[in-house]
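Input (structure):
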């Protein structure tokens, strides 16, 4: 598949019960809209998720059918969020399912990616049920997050000049640590928690922060 980068991260398998409960709220992130009279495809709506630490933000956009390339969507997101052109290279669009995550190539057509998704789920997760496009295993999200191949040196150089990119990458890293996606020792977790408290609350004040203030 020419439009998929070779970055696939298997995730922990969820029980059937947890999947069915979660997917009740799911709607396809990529939806086609047709002219009611001619039945021609008029536009495509795309919902992209941004990770913001303890929460997330879903962006809703509409594109002409010929403009649904991954790089176009990423550029629109960056412009809307105020990310500089230099910092856009730190991010990528990912298609994420219950047990599979794949980074999408910049020039990929997202309509084709969505169409090929069930085949990719079958190939990499070995769920034969995923052959059915409507099966719950084929539920997916589009997530705008860190580009997998960006080196730390380049990341540091860019985020020093782009506060929005720094804030988004911080929120993503925080979420990954809290959810256990990033391996973290207890010592590192305590240090990170202390830094977060310092940034949020400031210096310790026994009058303002008595015992039990943080629980």
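Output (sequence):
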């Amino acid at each position: 598949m020419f439009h998929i980068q070779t970055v696939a991260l298997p995730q922990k398998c969820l029980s059937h019960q947890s999947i069915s409960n979660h997917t009740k709220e799911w709607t396809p992130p990529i939806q086609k809209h047709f002219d009611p009279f001619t039945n021609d495809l008029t536009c495509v709506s795309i919902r992209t998720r941004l990770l913001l630490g303890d929460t997330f933000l879903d962006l809703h956009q509409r594109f002409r059918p010929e403009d649904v390339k991954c790089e176009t969507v990423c550029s629109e997101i960056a412009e809307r969020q105020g990310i500089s052109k230099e910092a856009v290279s730190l991010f990528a669009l990912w298609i994420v399912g219950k047990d599979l995550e794949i980074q999408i190539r910049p020039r990929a057509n997202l309509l084709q990616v969505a169409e090929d998704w069930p085949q990719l789920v079958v190939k990499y997760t070995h769920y034969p049920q995923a052959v059915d496009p409507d099966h719950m295993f084929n539920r997916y999200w589009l997530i705008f997050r860190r580009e997998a191949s960006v080196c730390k040196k380049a990341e540091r150089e860019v985020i020093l000049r782009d506060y929005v990119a720094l804030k988004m990458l911080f929120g993503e890293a925080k979420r990954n640590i809290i959810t256990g996606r990033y391996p973290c020792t207890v010592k590192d977790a305590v240090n990170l928690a202390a830094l977060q408290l310092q940034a949020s609350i400031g210096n310790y004040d026994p009058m303002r922060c008595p015992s039990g203030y943080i629980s």
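Notes: Confidence is low (pLDDT under 50) at residues 1-23. The longest strand covers residues 41-52.
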